[in-house]
Amino acid sequence: EDAFELITNNAVEAVTESELRELAADPEGERAYVGYEPSGVLHLGHMLTATKLMELQEAGFEVVVLLADVHAYLNDKGSFAEIRETAERMQEQFVAFGLNPERTEFVLGSEFQLDEDYVLDQHELGLETSMNRAQRSMGEIAGDDAERVSHVNYPLMQALDIKYLNVDLAVGGMEQRKVHMLARDVLPKLDEPAPTCLHTPLIADLETGIGKMSSSDGVTISMEDSTADIEAKVEAGFCPPTADPDPEAHLSSDDLPEGVESADVQLENPVLQLFEFHVFPRFDAVTVEREDRFGGDVTFDSYAALEAAVEAGDLHPDDCKSALADALDRLVDPGRQKLAAAD
Ligand code: IYR
Fold it and tell me: What ipTM was predicted for this assembly?
């Protein structure tokens, strides 16, 4: 029960919950994985699922990190040679971020995805899957340009990775869920069990609180950022004094993308989301430093306590932001040092 609590805390959903309960009841020898398209520099998107992997390690799971070089190539992220090179740097940063290198298996996709067995299985899945289904599964992964044949090969290969890495649990952000559902449907056709899946939330855009944070457009924080960069980005973040902002109350028409009405907008407090999903899972407590005239320093030992203080008006958004910048800076610092040493 403790293991189940630890790994579902900060997750949006398990598919299915009862399957995950069963894995968590005896995690010894169970394998969990996340795949990442190598990009060279870790950013918040990677760090969110990496934090979940650390929790899985703590709960006793074996953890596999797939550096999905072939997938990055299929998703138009550069030449294959470039992608390969960035994969190596990324592995170092995952370790700097906190994944225990002795207990993490790092695998390069191209080590096994070009083997004859894999490729023939891929073609079998191709026979079993409609174009429409494969394409739809990529909506949140491929951006606007999912009209390539490569984008229908991509999800079939992601499904097959589960078989070839011999993993029991596939972990990913909510943007991966349709690919995982496809995997659950098609793997049984290869006489493989349907994989259990665990999905982490999407964090809203830091500046606006609308939609989802993206490394390609909008602000993210990465291991390349200096302390001052992080402070500036967080300071410019959207942080109303509530965890559940009402678009009608907190947005003016100037804040909205063209043609969008406030009633249609999903609005979040990204500063608080970052505390919940990035900071508290890694730190036992967070101290917000304040001048005495503003109440003096205050320490929170859970996200719930911090949120309650914000909602009650006892903790000002600006003080939240400086504490967040400080905590994110500490999470990023070891990877930043690694990058500096590699240059
Ligand atoms: N689709 C992921 C990358 C990826 C994940 C897994 I899990 C794989 O088996 C292969 C690739 C992304 O969007 O980054």
Answer: 0.93
